[in-house]
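I am still getting used to backbone structure tokens and would like to learn alongside you. To get us started, please write out a protein record for me. Once you have written the record down, we can walk along the chain together.
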Amino acid sequence: MCGITGILNLDGDPVSPVILKKMTDAIAHRGPDGEGQYIDNGLGLGHRRLAIIDLSPAGHQPMSTIDGQLIMTYNGEIYNFNELRIELESLGYQFRSRTDSEVLLYAYAEWREKCLERFNGMFAFAIWDKRRRELFLARDRYGIKPLYYTNTGTKFIFGSEVKAIIAHPDYPRSIDFEGLLEYLTFQNFLTEKTLFKDIKLLPAGTYMCLSLDTQKSVQQQYWDYHFVEPDNPLDDREYLEELDRLFRQAINRQLISDVELGAYLSGGIDSGSITAIAAQQLPYIKSFTCGFDLNSASGVEVSYDEREAAEYMSYLFKTEHYEMVLKAGDMERVMPRLAWHLEEPRVGQSYPNFYVAQLASKFVKVVLAGTGGDELFAGYPWRYYRAVVNDDFEHYVDKYYSFWQRLLSPEEIKNVFQPIWSKVEHISTKDIFSSVFRQHSVELTRPEDYVNHSLYFEAKTFLHGLLVVEDKLSMAHSLETRVPFLDNDLVDFAMKIPTRLKLGNLTEVIRLNENEPGNKTDKYFQKNKDGKLLLREVMSNYIPKVLTERVKQGFSAPDASWFKGESIDYVRRTIENNHAKIYNFLDQSAVSQLVDEHLQGKANRRLLIWSLLNLEKWCSLFL
């Protein structure tokens, strides 16, 4: 696990070692165990190393093949690298290290872009081919590891984080108003855009090849999710046994490490089951939980602290357990560091993730997380149930698009963006939403098909946002996060599980949808123990049923209460400030009206307030 960066000067100018060093240093937190730079005239590659497998100097990067024709800078872990190494050795390749990095390099030498289909892991890397004068960049199937890039016309610049790119003096810092519109609609980016003008995030499951001779780039998607109802489903018992086998296999694959490994342990079933299986292989594994002080919480937020359930699981699995408690004010305290490392806000209120990663990093260099279980196995039934009965695809988009406007409605967007409306009025966020489904060729004839469409959307967008946030906030503390649910074999299997084994109440929900559900049935969508049925049954082999049958609980602080109470001065001081930088492009009156709705208890605007607080700090740090 590392940080990578690089430059390809399209104008032929030699790369400045000073600039490349500055770019590499900008992501030093991603790799405190070593650094390296490689320059070949107009090409420069930088690397920061977090040593996890083969801690010796043999793992130093940038790394080249023995003949010196391929040079690589790589970030990630390939969990099946030993199997690939054996295959490559049978083809005559010789290795100088025990690293997965060298295996990846020679896999590319042998199979070119086809090697991507063989990797089971998380990665972002760049390889310079001296003979072909081509730069090849790629990102893993799911987007666990980020890779940003920009093309100024004379320079192609890339990095694991935006900080590496903006460290180059030829990048002019400015905000992307279209990206801002996208974010303030979805609290996420559904396209390649970021908040930084002309800086893009290479999509998950995609590679790019840039030729120095033609100065043309080719971008190609090599993998995508495909959730589908099976034509000839297996017996239910077979699904249960196979999921159990693949789940255990995925966790055991990801235990490979030459440094100590721990696990996040919330009160949820995903992290609990991962920890249970890992603890069988690693006695007294260290586990980590973040809880919340609920003295000033109200409503549903009084149940947000899961420490009791986590402590019970720690007792069962005999982990060496550590926990911390966040209070009102901790967000304000961490916001400058958080915004700097996050670089661009995405899904959710992510500062608890920053704190729990900080806690884990004091004890281990690698931690297992339960990310992906909900998106693969339908853990958010109240989302899918809103759009299961539709006349056609457009009808489905109308209903689901409305639900995913997490921050501002179209009318609110127009008011808030009034100062710059002429710059963004041509953008249709509904078209952005609809375009996500372009590659998911599923015949939409049954409610189950629409559920699979929804699972596809969430894996492509919501899960991807979670992964980007998790990478940034763990690597801020030089901590590697692994996500066993995103094992290739497990994902391939999960996408073909019948909907009835994920969602048990679908028949009843179909009836409700046909009767045009309103406020009454909104409560039904929220109040159920549905979702992840097959996974819950498998996990009952490892954790008590009292926990597997719990209602889904997200990892969130009671900020809705805190924003109206103990943190109200911070909110007002930051957002109701006439000199706030966000009002260089947002309408202050429109923003204040929406925020006041929350402060007066008229509406829950916690996600919007979080986003505005983060954006204000982002402006101070990056513009």
User: Anything to note?
Assistant: The longest helix spans residues 447-475. The chain has a mean pLDDT of 92. The chain is about 40% helix and 15% strand. The CA atoms of residues 290 and 355 lie 8 Å apart.
